[in-house]
């Protein structure tokens, strides 16, 4: 990926965006500094004997803010992981949790590893060893620090971590709440895998409910037929694109992946592209689509909505001027650098910021943590009772009118909410509420010209209030 040499680092970018927001707030300099800095970063180097020799791995766990505990944030597996990046991501977690009112401080972890270099059993040994190092120091703990998946990790790694914690805390009743994003069969929650992508969809749906906000991006109408380009068809990008295509009628005209990009103005079938990607290891050769070896060029193509959903700094000083999309939704963390953000704002592009756009994952992680602490799945107590009350209502309605309600209405109305329905409802409510709190600031304060600054103002205000109530 090409990046300008004068581009600030990811952490500096986050700091710059923070500074721009606090300049519009009335915080004491001491409190401002307290919120900005990362409280601690633990670096660990550990050895694992694999393939006949000892391999040394480097991992990090940063805690940005403990104004609420536990702290929360994913664990990333990538060769590019470094302290600067982990600290920036931990800071974003603080602001993200505050924005969606998930009662956590911010944290993040990472391991310098390319998961593709290792067999599954080797990865399990490496993950368990990394988890052991963090658990020993309460950097994984249901009441102290609760990780989740991020780039390069998923349900499988979370299940290993949960099991490692349980082995080291055999009498801990709440052991399974030490990590979220676990498989459903290992005390996870329905709807977690797709939660971040689903949240991106809900965020766009909410944006498109407000014509005055759409107008600022020069857009009108509904999501139906809007042309979308997605970068990264992984967990987040795939689910976001799939839901937008199947449920909102968006046309996914471009997909950018590691090996290049594919383009079809008539719309790409997301599910088939994903299967091709899994089967062939890339998008190249997808039938009927135009292929571009220099994939990042497609970020600059004409479209209505651009969804960077892969990695940091994808949109930077080298390409920001050429970006044509009037609306960018940051499904990835930090995909737009501070410099690019300035250029895009000047061009009138509306950016739905990462701390809000991809908060669906942490929101459903919060639900999973609550489920684990309450030791019961959502909906278990009330579902059938709800169904029988609805049955009574339909029976009485039919008796009074002498007419039958339609079979489709009856089927929908009778169905009591199961865990998945409740998770979706909680996630949608959260995404809608958070957008409204940001957009209110964006609309009401003329000096706040973008959604990112508005989001920082809302979240920093909440973190500051939490610190003040602690007496700081
Ligand atoms: P993932 O590993 O599942 O997917 C990343 C995708 O990006 C992969 O398909 C990969 O092939 C692709 N990619 C990698 N390099 C690329 C390149 N140079 N050009 C184009 N595509 C490339 O990861 P994910 O979990 O979907 O995370 C993606 C982003 O979303 C990250 O920034 C992550 O921090 C953020 N995020 C993830 C979650 C979550 O719940 N998984 C939650 C919040 C934020």
Q: What's the architecture of the largest domain in CATH terms? A: 3-Layer(aba) Sandwich
% residues in beta strands:
15-25%
Number of E-type strands: 12
Detail the poorly predicted runs: none
CATH topology descriptor of the largest domain: Rossmann fold
Biggest β-sheet strands, sense, barrel: 7 strands, mixed
CATH superfamily of the largest domain: NAD(P)-binding Rossmann-like Domain
Name the overall outline: globular
Distance between the termini: 42 Å
SSE pattern = HHEEEHEHEHHHEHEEHEEEHEHHHHHH
CATH C-level of the largest domain: Alpha Beta
Widest beta sheet: strand line-up: 9-8-7-6-10-11-12
The helix count comes to 16
Notes on the protein architecture:
The longest helix is centred in the C-terminal third of the chain and has 26 residues, at 419-444. The strands form two sheets. Strands 9-8-7-6-10-11-12 form a seven-stranded mixed beta sheet, sandwiched between helices. A five-stranded mixed beta sheet has the order 1-2-4-3-5. It folds into three domains: 38-186, Leucine Dehydrogenase, chain A, domain 1 (Rossmann fold, 3-Layer(aba) Sandwich), CATH 3.40.50; 190-377 and 426-472, Rossmann fold (3-Layer(aba) Sandwich); 383-416, no CATH class. 45% of the residues lie in helices and 15% in strands. It has 472 residues and is α/β, with parallel strands linked by helices. Helix 6 (195-207) packs across helix 8 and helix 6 crosses helix 15. It has 16 helices and twelve strands. The protein binds nicotinamide-adenine-dinucleotide (NAD). Residues 1, 149-152, 196, 231-237, 256-258, 295, 309-311, 331-333, 358, 361 line the site of nicotinamide-adenine-dinucleotide. The site of nicotinamide-adenine-dinucleotide has 25 residues, from helix 8 and strand 7.
